[in-house]
Amino acid sequence: MNNHPVQVAEPIRKLIEEFNKLPGIGPKSAQRLTYYLVRMPEEHARELCDSIIAIKEKLVFCSICQNISETDPCAICQSSERDHTLICVVENPLDIMAMERIRGYNGLYHVLHGVISPMDGIGPDDLKIERLLSRLKTEDTQEVILATNLNLEGEATAMYLQKLITPLGIRVTRLARGLPFGSELEYADEVTLTRALEGRREI
After folding, report:
1. Which of 57, 86, 115, 150 is 20 to 30 Å from 182 by CA-CA measure?
2. For residue 58, what are the CA distances in angstroms to 109, 118, 201?
3. Same domain, yes or no, for 32 and 126?
């Protein structure tokens, strides 16, 4: 019986470790991705490396809405064709992509970069809530749409924001229940998301 330890080349071991740090990537997936890259043509591997480096070197957070952008302010915040009296608050930048797909929303956004989750040690101070409140006190905002996900953390975050925003005299609405409880905005189809936006309610 062969009891010798499996010898793994150091570059392979290191890359497996790095992939394993990514969300949703377990040890098996990390191994599959690594060995896929080993077989990938060098030209494609270099393109992948360049793309990863580019997102760290060329992207910034918009100082207004906190979205990821190539410019500051971002194109949405700069646009004169958007409704600057309307702000849709989302959890992460992927949610903006989902909202933009439906082409039925023409306001601005604000990205919280997470939700309140005591279990994970995330409180209000860890989110971009102060930045949002500063905007609301200086901009001519008429309505804030709370588009956090319909799960316990998303609902708790929406309620917390509603208590902070309502005293400012700004209308606060929530996406309608066209989205099933527990669903995430970024995965919602266009029809469901459109109905949720059109049927938004005051809270």
Report:
1. 86
2. 21, 33, 38
3. no
Alpha-carbon dihedral sign for residues 188, 102, 172, 160: positive
Q: Domain of 33: which CATH number?
A: 1.10.8.420
**Nearest Cα residue to 154 out of 117, 108, 121, 196:** 117
pLDDT at 14 (0 to 100):
95
Q: What is the pLDDT of residues 63-116, one digit of tens each?
A: 999 999 999 999 999 999 999 999 999 999 999 998 998 888 999 999 999 999
Same domain? For 48 and 109 the reply is no
Full domain range(s) for residue 51: 10-57
Is the overall model pTM greater than 0.90, yes or no? no
Instruction: Over range 160-169, report the average pLDDT.
Output: 96
In a domain, 47, yes or no: yes
Check residue 167 and report its DSSP letter: G
| Pairing relationship of beta strands 83-90 and 107-111 according to DSSP bridges | parallel
pLDDT tens digits for 30-49?
999 999 999 999 999 999 99
Does a structural domain hold residue 33? yes
Give the integer Cα–Cα distance in Å for 120 and 142. 33
**Distance between CA atoms of residues 91 and 114, nearest Å:** 5
- Number of residues in the chain: 203
